[in-house]
Amino acid sequence: MLHDLLIKNIKKHVQLSDTEVERICNYFEPKVIEKRSFLLTQGSIYKYEGFVLEGCFRIFTTDKKGNENTLYFATKDWWLIDIDSFMNQHPSDLNIQALEDSKVLLIKKVDKMELYNSLPVVEKLFRIMSQKALVAWQRRLIRNHSLTAEERYHHFIQTYPEIASKLTDRQISSYLGITHEFLSKIKRKNTKTE
């Protein structure tokens, strides 16, 4: 079933009856996003929250000089969100781009709010997920301030090998906050020591 992965993800966080799960799933619409296509572009308003069924996405900003800065990657069983744009309906500072042909389930803000009101456990679900996301962001900030670029690279490769294998060196260096050339130096150094 299309929603099986979503159901497993939800049940990791809260206990729900089959009826409640079915009700939640009915609000999510499937969508196919082709490789290099955008689910969100900077300056537009994010109208959906997404759950990745297949594929990989890059969430990034582009500064005034055209430099891309990757915030995170989302792959199977991950959530896609620009919380500020989605909740406040502000123009987004983010781009969400498919790095390969991908499938997602999308929920509109109005439907999410309807679920909050009609099924209080959904609010608990998203609160728990928001807290976990906040912990992940905090840990990443700490790593960015306390680890060297080489240590951050090794952490990323070891923690997310399935994501790293799908990325170009430019995408990895954008995520790590270093230049492509510096990443090449790190990789060359590691090749010599192996």
UniProtKB/TrEMBL annotation:
Q: Which residues form a coiled coil?
A: none
Q: Which residues are the signal sequence here?
A: none
**For the Cyclic nucleotide-binding domain, which residue ranges apply?**
32-115
Q: Which CDD domains match?
A: CAP_ED
Please name the InterPro entries in this protein's record: cNMP-bd_dom, cNMP-bd_dom_sf, RmlC-like_jellyroll
User: What protein is this chain from?
Assistant: Crp/Fnr family transcriptional regulator
Q: Which organism is it from?
A: Algibacter agarivorans
Q: What is the lineage of its organism?
A: Bacteria, Pseudomonadati, Bacteroidota, Flavobacteriia, Flavobacteriales
